[in-house]
Design a protein that fits this description.
single chain; 4 helices; mainly alpha; 116 residues
Length: 116
């Protein structure tokens, strides 16, 4: 595996962490079911800063922005589903789970096309 693919995986991981922490910060600030915590805000700031630095210092290969956006949405949906499992009073996690599965299939197809 070359250095460029490691950088790509790092970008995708940072995009997923940014999505998780954005939804976590929003939920911690505005949901009465979830107790407040400063950690999602800190994680959001650090992950967004790292992702921004990576964007400024490295060129993104063809197809990477759509994959990064998909990983960001995946992070948002994963956190939403996990919070709804932990606090069932919020509502069902059926729709976020279906969207996650569809998004994972789209990501796998996109990554297989990128490899070929």
């Amino acid at each position: 595996m070359n250095v460029a693919s490691h950088r790509d995986k790092g970008t995708l991981l940072l995009a997923c962490i940014t999505g998780l922490s954005l939804n976590g910060a929003f939920t911690a600030l505005f949901s009465s079911y979830v107790p407040f915590s400063i950690f999602p805000l800190l994680t959001l700031a650090l992950a967004a800063w790292c992702l921004h630095q990576r964007y400024l210092n490295r060129a993104m290969p063809e197809g990477m922005p759509s994959l990064a956006a998909a990983f960001f949405l995946l992070g948002v949906l994963v956190y939403s589903a996990l919070v709804r499992v932990e606090y069932p009073d919020i509502g069902s996690n059926f729709i976020p789970t279906l969207l996650m599965v569809a998004l994972v299939f789209w990501i796998v197809l996109k990554m297989q096309r990128k490899r070929s």
